[in-house]
Design goal:
This is Major facilitator superfamily (MFS) profile domain-containing protein. With 357 residues, the protein is an all-alpha fold. It contains 15 helices and no strands. Helix 9 runs antiparallel to helix 10 (231-249). The longest helix has 31 residues, at 166-196. The radius of gyration is 22 Å and the shape is globular. The N and C termini lie far apart (64 Å).
């Protein structure tokens, strides 16, 4: 329930944050959200009751809402004519580094001076980070408030969601839905699969760390790979490797499975960097924020629902069969990858266009 309060609030506020950034300064929204997050964590150190804890985590999630869509938009805009996929891969990689290092530091501080002081420190760090974000983006002249449009500009500005290719955007959204759902389902069943292979409780933490470590590397490497191979080839490669890796894990002994987990993590999370950058290909620059917000919300929704659905499936058919289903299900992304390829092809010129040339 505590995790759902935070994650749910973050998912809820991503869409409003995307819309607000089209009227207000994205850098102010990012800084304000980070400061709000820090303040919520600071107050967590003072809380006593469960309900108060739940509310503060909910508010912390609201503060986190602008981070993904607005940061991705700023990165995509900065590299609009450059290696955007590599840049977003580095951005996603840095996020995973933070997810590993900050909890580790918090655990060390909490062990030394108590959890309340550790949470206080995390809150102060959040507020300082908000100030640093505002200063850095101001110096870079990034994330400023959108300029008011003139009457002539309003007539040619994109309306609605600014989707340039509905088929392409629908295809990458479907890939995101399936890919994230399989990832969270896999992480749910992995400990049970390893226990069946004879793993002890102390080894399960290592296994998850191996997947996350490989996943962080995958976000970085696959962003670079997409710049060389192209997005469709990279996505097909990572999705096939993910499905094959999940299925091979079922037949591997414990040590072999542990050795394979980082590679599965690379393939499994590597797709995300390619997908995030591709969002910008199908949305006009003025609507990038709401496009990223929708895309991240779809992924978070799939991640929340997937363990529940596959938990019921596992109760009916067992862990191993559920893992087979996950391994096969990821291959359903391949047709959508081909749809992305088709959507990126320029439309053929009509004959009457040639005659006027």
């Amino acid at each position: 329930m505590l995790k759902f309060a935070y994650s749910g609030a973050m998912a809820i506020f991503q869409m409003p944050a995307g819309f607000l950034s089209e009227r207000f300064s994205p850098k102010l929204l990012l800084a304000a959200g980070t400061a709000f997050l820090g303040l919520a964590f600071f107050l967590l150190g003072l809380t006593e009751g469960f309900v108060t804890l739940l509310l503060l985590l909910f508010f912390a999630g609201l503060g986190s809402g602008p981070q993904h869509p607005l940061s991705s938009t700023l990165v995509a805009k900065a590299y609009e004519t450059g290696p955007r996929r590599a840049a977003l891969g580095i951005y996603n990689f840095s996020g995973d580094i933070g997810k590993v290092t900050l909890p580790a530091i918090l655990a060390l501080v909490a062990g030394a001076v108590g959890w309340r002081m550790g949470v206080f420190g995390l809150g102060v760090f959040g507020v300082i980070s908000a100030a640093a974000i505002l200063i850095a983006l101001t110096r870079l002249r990034a994330g400023s408030r959108p300029k008011p449009q003139t009457a002539s500009e309003k007539t040619i500005s994109p309306s609605g969601w600014g989707i340039l290719n509905r088929r392409g955007f629908a295809a990458i959204s479907a890939i995101n839905l399936l890919d994230t759902g399989v990832t969270f389902g896999f992480l749910t069943f992995l400990p049970f699969l390893l226990i069946e292979k004879g793993a002890g409780v102390e080894m399960l933490g290592l296994a998850v760390a191996l997947v996350f470590g490989g996943g962080a590397a995958g976000k970085f490497l696959c962003g670079l790979l997409a710049e060389r191979l192209g997005i469709v080839r990279t996505m097909v490669l990572t999705e096939i490797a993910t499905g094959a890796g999940i299925l091979v894990l079922l037949f591997m002994p414990l040590l072999g499975a542990l050795a394979l987990l980082p590679l599965v993590g690379v393939a499994m999370n590597g797709t995300s960097s390619v997908l995030y950058a591709t969002v910008a290909d199908f949305i006009t620059p003025e609507r990038h924020a709401r496009g990223f917000a929708f895309f991240y919300t779809v992924g978070m929704g799939a991640g929340a629902i997937s363990p529940l659905i596959f938990g019921l499936v596992s109760d009916a058919v067992g862990v191993s069969t559920s893992m087979v289903i996950l391994g096969v299900l990821i291959f359903l992304t391949i047709p959508f990858c081909l749809m992305v390829s088709y959507s990126q092809q320029p439309l053929p010129k009509r004959r009457d266009d040639k005659s006027h040339g």
